[in-house]
């Protein structure tokens, strides 16, 4: 994670956007008279949003933990993809 100023970001916009996109770099943009902001790749944002959604209900959290425990203890069934249709 790197930090830059809004002024430096404006000067190097393409470089900074490429770093975020290509290298999955997170950048904190310091703004002197406003709250700092964070620039992250859209894929990272989507991942966080999905995780937040999946953990938004107690029932879903319990189901996810149960599934993780089953997988870790070997209580899984292997299927061939052709068996799904």
Can you give me a brief rundown of this structure?
With 85 residues, this protein is an alpha+beta fold. Helices cover 53% and strands 13% of the residues. It starts with a strand and ends in a 13-residue tail after the last helix.
Description:
This protein has 85 residues and is of the alpha+beta class. It has four helices and three strands. It has a three-stranded mixed sheet with strand order 1-2-3.
Q: How much helix is in the residues? A: 40-55%
Give the oligomer, counting copies of the same chain as homo and different chains as hetero.
single chain
Structural class: alpha+beta
Spatial shape: elongated
The count of DSSP E runs of length 2 or more, i.e. the number of strands, is: 3
| Biggest beta sheet attributes | 3 strands, mixed
- Count of helix runs: 4
User: Distance N terminus to C terminus?
Assistant: 44 Å
* Overall residue-averaged pLDDT value: 94
Strand arrangement in the largest pleated sheet:
1-2-3
The Rg value, from CA coordinates, equals 20 Å
Strand share of the residues?
5-15%
Please write out the topology.
Blueprint: E1 2-5, H1 6-11, H2 13-23, E2 27-30, E3 37-39, H3 42-54, H4 58-72
Parallel strand pairs: 1-2
Antiparallel strand pairs: 2-3
Q: What labels describe this entry?
A:
single chain; 3-stranded mixed beta sheet; 4 helices; elongated
């Amino acid at each position: 994670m790197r930090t830059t100023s809004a002024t430096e970001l404006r000067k190097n916009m393409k470089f900074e956007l490429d770093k975020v996109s290509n290298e999955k770099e997170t950048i904190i943009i310091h703004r002197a008279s406003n709250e700092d902001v964070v620039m992250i790749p859209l894929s990272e944002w989507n991942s966080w949003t999905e995780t937040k959604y999946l953990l938004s209900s107690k029932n879903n959290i319990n189901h996810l933990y149960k599934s993780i425990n089953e997988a870790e203890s070997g209580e899984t069934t292997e299927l061939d993809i052709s068996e799904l249709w």
